[in-house]
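[step 3/7] fold_predict: job queued, chain A
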Amino acid sequence: MSKTEQGGTGERDRSTVERLAAGVVGSDALKGATKRAMEARERAVELQEFTLGALNLPSAAVIDRLTRRVRSVALRLESIEDGLDRLEDRLDDAAGGGADPADLKKVLARLEAIEARLEALQQSDGSR
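[step 4/7] structure written:
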């Protein structure tokens, strides 16, 4: 057999296989089987979650949610720690004599104004 004969036969075989595959992929039987397989998978997942719940064990989804929440809390704590470090540095600078007494008086006056405003808000809330 020559190469051209083999190439022609190979192309015919491939086109036959392609037509067969296209027929199978587009068939209602394959669509139905795929649908039933997906439904079975969903039922298995529901059964697994029910079983884990009955055993009082967390599912993978619950653990994943908890992990994300813990990471979120950790990030928030880190930002709070950074803020406290900056505040501590500023207080150290102020206590070390590096701050101008006039600046300290301004800070105290501002704190007193904030305190007065808070008291006014509390009193207006209490009168309602």
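[step 5/7] annotate
The chain has four helices and no strands.
The two ends are 102 Å apart (CA to CA).
exit 0
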